[in-house]
Amino acid sequence: MFLAGRILAMMTNVERRQWLHVSFWVLALMTLAMLMLTSGCKKQHAAVDPKASEAAVRAADVSWSRAAQAHDMTAVFSYYASDAVVLPANSEMSTDKLGMQKVWSEMLTKDTDLEWTPMWVEAAKSGDLVYVVGNYTLTTKAGKGKPSKIERGKYMEVWKKQADGTWKAEADTWNADAPAKRGKA
Predict the structure, then answer these.
(1) What's the CA gap between 96 and 116, in Å, rounded?
(2) Degrees (nearest 5) of the Cα angle 157, 159, 160?
(3) What is the DSSP code (8-state) at residue 145?
(4) CATH value of 47-176 in 1.20.1250.20, 3.40.50.1220, 3.10.450.50, 3.10.450.350
(5) Cα torsion through 93, 28, 119, 137, rounded to 10
(6) Which of 23, 5, 150 is CA-nearest to residue 90?
(7) How much is the pTM?
(8) What's the rounded Cα separation, in Å, for the pair 36 and 28?
(9) List of residues 6+ apart from 47 with CB closer than 8 A
(10) Of 27-41, 120-134, 137-151, where does the model show the most confidence?
(11) Please, which residues bridge with residue 138 across strands?
(12) What φ, ψ does residue 100 adopt, rounded to 5°?
């Protein structure tokens, strides 16, 4: 850990941003691989059409974004599977409802607006897992006479078809396009 910190300290801002970008995608792909591997250990279900799965998840993701835009926290949480993992940027991983509620209540306040749009939606050949990659915009309203703060970023979700036929997000992660702000050392 000490060595990694020293190496990061020697990197330029561009190198750090590239390292963070690569780290984000490595983590996202490892999560997707883990979910795909563990799904093979469970009882096999009838084949699902991957294109139908992609369309269903795309529609669910758009509805989820609308729920967030409406600040409907009950609806927002309804899109997560009971064993979901949330990996917010610059924060600890959340694996339970209380942790997820904390993440969302800190992010989605009366002074913020959040919306996201899926760019790529792709299903596994089995059709029971789908990943989504897209862009988000988080706008924080400022006080009188001050401009709003706009954060643009990307996200990745892994969705799984549930036993009841619904689609739920098993993994959810996002981060801003801008580099993380660093405090004074």
Answers:
(1) 23
(2) 160
(3) T
(4) 3.10.450.50
(5) 30
(6) 23
(7) 0.72
(8) 12
(9) 126, 127
(10) 120-134
(11) 114, 151
(12) -65, -40
The letter for the amino acid at 179 is P
Q: What is the pLDDT of residues 142-154, one digit of tens each?
A: 877 788 899 999 9
Judge whether 142 and 135 are in contact, CB under 8 Å.
no
| Domain positions in the chain | 47-176
Query: What is the DSSP-derived secondary structure letter of residue 148?
Result: P
Burial of 33 (0-12, 13-18, 19+ CB in 10 A): exposed
Percent of the chain predicted with pLDDT > 70: 72
- pLDDT 10s digits, 45-83: 556 789 999 999 999 999 999 999 999 999 999 999 999
DSSP assignment string, 24-79? HHHHHHHHHHHHHHHHTTSPP-----HHHHHHHHHHHHHHHHHHHHTT-HHHHHHT
